[in-house]
Amino acid sequence: MNVSFPIPKELESYLEVQLQSGNYDTVADYFLMLLQQDKRRKDAQAKLASLLQEGLDSEAEPVNPEYWQDLRRSIFGTGH
Q1: DSSP category for residue 61
Q2: N or C terminus: fewer CB in 10 A for the chain?
């Protein structure tokens, strides 16, 4: 696929700085990285939405001092 589109001058200048920094060899490399980041971000948002919905759909659990103690123990190990 060959993609072509106009870039505003201020963004073109920014793009040139990015290329001159040596982090990207070509404009295509830079846009590929942006697409990959966008995909990872959207995948993470979808996963978060799924986990939030899973939490909302689950049974309520009482939160008391014992709950917090067990949670700390599961995170930090025994003795905390």
Answers
A1: -
A2: N
Three-state DSSP at 25 gives: coil
| Residues 3, 34: Cα–Cα separation, whole Å | 15
Q: What angle do CA 7, 45, 23 make, to 5 degrees?
A: 45
Q: Structure tokens of 39?
A: 């995909």
Whole-model pTM? 0.67
Q: Which residues contact 24 (CB under 8 A, 6 or more apart)?
A: 18, 30, 33
> Which token pair is 40?
């990872």
* CA neighbor of 3 nearest in space, from 32, 42, 25: 32
